[in-house]
Write a structure and sequence with these properties.
Helix content: 10-25%
Radius of gyration: 32 Å
Distance between the termini: 56 Å
Number of domains: 6
Structural class: alpha+beta
Strand order of the largest sheet: 1-2-3-4-6-5
CATH class of the largest domain: Mainly Alpha
CATH architecture of the largest domain: Orthogonal Bundle
Strand content: 35-45%
Number of strands: 32
Amino acid sequence: MTEKAIGSYKVIKRIGEGGMAKVYLAVHKDVPNLKVVLKILSDPRLVERFRSEADKLALLDGHGKICQIKHFFNHGDDIVIAMEYIDGQPLDELIKDTGQLSLSESLRIVTDILDTLEFAHQRGISHRDIKPSNVMVDSKSQVKIIDFGIAKAETDPDLTVAGSACGTPTYMAPEQFNPTDQTDYVRADIYAVGTLLYFLLTGQLPFTGDNAFALRDAKLFNDPPEPRGLNPEIPGALQEIVLKALHKDPNDRYATAREMGEALSTIEGKAIPSRVAASEKTEHIPVKGKKKRGKIISILVPIMAAAVYIVFIQGGTDKGPKIPQMYAPRPNMEIGTPQATFSWEATAGEGGAYTLEFTSDSEFTNPRIINDLTSTSVTIPDSLPEGRYFWRIGAVSRDGRSSGFSAIGSFSVKLPEFARGIINVQVNPSGDIYVDDSLCGTGLNQLSVPADVGRHIVSARNTASRQKRLVDTVLVASGETIESRHRFTFPKTASNTPKLQPTTYDIRIGSNMGSNPVFGGMVYIDGVLQDNRTPNTYSMTLGKHMVRVTLSHDGRELEKTDSIVVAKNGEHKLIFIFEE
């Protein structure tokens, strides 16, 4: 938007853009000290969701830890929400600037978030997208929750297609990936808070994956690594709270934000390491006749605490395992196979283990993590696409002491030219076939698609079915044919129950090129070569099919393609005419 003014507000600068709105910093034209954030709807298809966000913010008005709505208005063809300006920064940026937060600060922030969510939940509103970038920390270190764009109220109409997911995959609960009318979004919010707390305490996410489907499977079938394995200073009771919030079964999580907040309050005072607070615990009440002795004791206490710290923390003979030296892959090594083998020096000692991280992002923002490795080498089970990768290794002794991570190594994967395979997609009864979001065919029941080595997402879509869309994740190896099968079900009504009885099509090939090519033509139906027949009659199921015929003439390969829709039983005819 090029205008300097939007309604009663003067635009200072554009500060962001999301999937639903563009965001500007502005001031009121008549009250220059009144700063606001303007959200301007950028997708007119989402107008009802935008109005719903404004309505929820109005309902939640009055809570000091929720970004407040100031105004909702139209500006020409645009719809605008004016919101409270928060002088601060998102939690993810704060962590990036200042480093990992202390245990006590992490607990304070999460407790504030839970208190705010309890307020919203009691009014029937679930946020559904709690993550660090939606938590603001202002200049006074106060916490505020922002972005209720996909929040859901109990009385909301359904603004989302059934079965489609809303949220940020790394923070979504397992049930959010394929929601139903019975999905409990209060417990989904609890899961997101558990994920955020895990990240604040360890600096890592509990689950990682190359895509949303890999993340979904990891959350459905695996347990997260124990936080204490990544940060031994985490109290055991706090670890249990985090793991309970992250339980894959919603019924085994905390039922309310208040319940989780109360559990955290029982350990909050124990979460600060004693050596940090030792020098502060020297205050004494004077006792008559013992004033001098009290002063001596007040001096000795921090000295003794420091001595204990030196003996047990710094001065022991065992300082924990040494950082392992990395052996393979060597720095900048090029690997010519789909798999990579890592090896390193043994430093964890008897009963110890190793943690391996690798990623295509040199900042290790969202790495793949393999914990509890007891050997000094591992072959990554997934085929790696071509590209550059980074890795590091850390050792953990049997008593939980960590070496920290090694320096970062790098390598690249370069696959040979022939490193391809085939995905054989079968759809019952038929549907539109997509591979990695690219449409490969419509109305088909079978299709073979050449694919590069690596992970691919295969989906089939049939709008008349109950499911609408079915998704599969496959891993293709060189020279391998992978089967991906999809079966739709349909409502049992006379009008939309598909009839699967076979019908026939008589496909005739003719030309005016002076020869009779009927028996020389090749017929492909849905990409599959058919046997030559006389007459050329083929049995097909109801639905749409692609027919391709090829013909050799004077050393040239001629080709024609047409689509047919088999709509009822009986015989049909399709004629292909080749001309000079």
